[in-house]
């Protein structure tokens, strides 16, 4: 389980937009091309239709793969506006905490009492 | 989202409605900024899948069921537009991943600050406790100082008192002790009578009702009489050969003070003297 989780988190860390394999149009184009190709030979027709169904399956697979890969992309659980709001909130939080620390550090100037 | 799935099931056979779904989806994704980028990407993929499916079905459909040219072209354009939208959204996702990295860094910083703050708070709490204890103790000391200031005791009296304590509670006789010295390592009868218990058993004086409030008062009362013991060896007390002690009272002559077992006391004296000699001899050894 742990190793699974680790590998999953590693994948999440490593998965970027560049790693995605979401090229739908070329596969779709191939399918349409093979459907519209007119064959006189029966065996060629059968082969073409098998080939075509294979490509349709491949297209389906590509869609599923794209979906699973998209769910692994980091930082897209919110819209950009929301994410920016969160970023601002975090910055404010950090600032406040920094101020609090500063306040704590210089709250009692013992050295002034000398 | 619910709308989308509903329309998808309902309209699989009707292209017009499918197009409507796609348009609805597009409107949803464009209009609502509340939808996360991930959902947006998945919507676009759904749309693309739907359009692709429709186009493929159209390609293998019988001629009379096929779409007209403009419709087909429109669908194809829509697919291309969707693909373009997908790529744009992926760019957005890339930007968001960058923002996420920044947020991770910030989160780490915030966590570190949290730890620091916690640590400081614990230390401040500790300091507060220590200070409050110190203040409490200081207040107690101040109170006792005030008490002492209200009723000052002279140092001479204190030293006398200390002498008395060391004289009457010592284990062995002082080095200067000689026969006839009334000092004893225990309270003598005179001291006992002057003391609290002696007065308790003395009903004539009426001290049963008017008891001194505390022991220090008692000592104070007994102080002047007993404190002068070393000086009054010749004046107030006189060691008689008979073994009785006489105490002079205000120039009215001496009052014999009964010592119950004066014989035994002389024995004690001897024992004490041997004690001192033995201790000195042991010291010399």
Automatic annotation (TrEMBL), chain A:
One of its GO terms (molecular function) is transcription coregulator activity. Transmembrane segments: none annotated. It is found in: Nucleus. It comes from the Eukaryota. Keywords: Activator, Coiled coil, Nucleus, Transcription, Transcription regulation. Belongs to the Mediator complex subunit 9 family. Component of the Mediator complex. Component of the Mediator complex, a coactivator involved in the regulated transcription of nearly all RNA polymerase II-dependent genes. Mediator functions as a bridge to convey information from gene-specific regulatory proteins to the basal RNA polymerase II transcription machinery. Mediator is recruited to promoters by direct interactions with regulatory proteins and serves as a scaffold for the assembly of a functional preinitiation complex with RNA polymerase II and the general transcription factors. This is Mediator of RNA polymerase II transcription subunit 9.
From TrEMBL, chain B:
Residues 103-137 form a coiled coil. GO terms for molecular function: transcription coregulator activity. Residues 248-285 are annotated as: Disordered. It is found in: Nucleus. InterPro entries: Mediator_Med4. It holds the Pfam family Med4. Residues 273-285 have a biased composition (Low complexity). Keywords: Activator, Coiled coil, Nucleus, Transcription, Transcription regulation. GO terms for biological process: regulation of transcription by RNA polymerase II. One of its GO terms (cellular component) is core mediator complex. Component of the Mediator complex. Belongs to the Mediator complex subunit 4 family. Component of the Mediator complex, a coactivator involved in the regulated transcription of nearly all RNA polymerase II-dependent genes. Mediator functions as a bridge to convey information from gene-specific regulatory proteins to the basal RNA polymerase II transcription machinery. Mediator is recruited to promoters by direct interactions with regulatory proteins and serves as a scaffold for the assembly of a functional preinitiation complex with RNA polymerase II and the general transcription factors. This is Mediator of RNA polymerase II transcription subunit 4. The lineage of its organism: Eukaryota, Metazoa, Ecdysozoa, Arthropoda, Hexapoda.
